[in-house]
C-alpha cells in the first residue's frame, strides 16, 4: 500500500504539482509545504535565544511586554517575501500552518522563551476575512499550537474598524490609523493569563501595539508578541 500511495502521489503530482511556498519548485516525497533547500537556507533571526532582541527593543517605552520575537528576517526580494505573498494572496493557509509549526519547534529549543498560556492571532476585519477566506495569523497560531501545545483563542480579540492600508504610513500614522480598531469580546477568558499575540510580519509594530493597548484596558494579563517575519 505504501508503494501504491507513492505512485498515486507522483501521478497526481504531474497534473497538480505541490510547490514549495518559498521558491515555487516541485516538492519531493517527505517535503511539506516548503522544500528542504529553502528550509535550511531561510534567514532565521534566532531572536528566541536573545531576551533583548530587536523586536523586544522596538516595543521599549511603548507598551509593556514579557517577550517578543520573529522567526525570519524579511527583506525585499528575498524568499521570505515570496513565502508571505503566497500565504496572504495565493490561497496557501496550509503554508502558514506549516511555518507556525516550524517556528514553534524552534521556540521549544530556546532556553529563553517562556511558554504562554494562550495564543491570540491578530484578527482581520470581517470584510477582509470574507475576501481572503482565512486569517493568515490564525493559521500561524494553529501551527504554533501544534508544537507548543497551547490553546488558540481566535474569537476574543476582534477587529472593529476596517482601516486603510498601512504599507506607506509612518509608525505614528500607522498607530493613529489603528486607534479603536480592536475590541475584546470576552475579557474574562483572558484574565490572569500569559498571552502570545501572533502576527504574520512585524514592521513598525503599530498593529501589535494597538492590540496590546486594547487588551490591557480590558484585562489584567501578561502579553508577549511573535511573528513569522521581521522587517527592519
Summarize it.
The protein is α/β, with parallel strands linked by helices and 232 residues long. It has nine helices and seven strands. The radius of gyration is 18 Å and the shape is globular.
Give the spatial strand order of the biggest sheet.
1-7-6-2-3
N-to-C SSE string, H for helix and E for strand: HHHEHHEHHEEHEEHE
Number of structural domains: 2
| Biggest sheet descriptor | 5 strands, parallel
If you average the pLDDT, what whole number results?
Answer: 90
Radius of gyration: 18 Å
**Second rung of CATH, namely the architecture of the largest domain:** 3-Layer(aba) Sandwich
Q: Which bin fits the share of residues in helices?
A: 40-55%
Per CATH, what is the topology of the largest domain? Rossmann fold
Overall structural class, as computed from helix and strand content, comes to: alpha/beta
In DSSP terms (H or I, runs of 4 or more residues), the helix count works out at 9
Q: Supply the CATH class of the largest domain.
A: Alpha Beta
User: What coarse outline follows from CA principal-axis ratios?
Assistant: globular
Alpha carbon gap, first and last residue: 49 Å
Q: pLDDT under 50 segments (min length 5)? A: none
Number of strands: 7
Estimated share of beta-strand residues = 15-25%
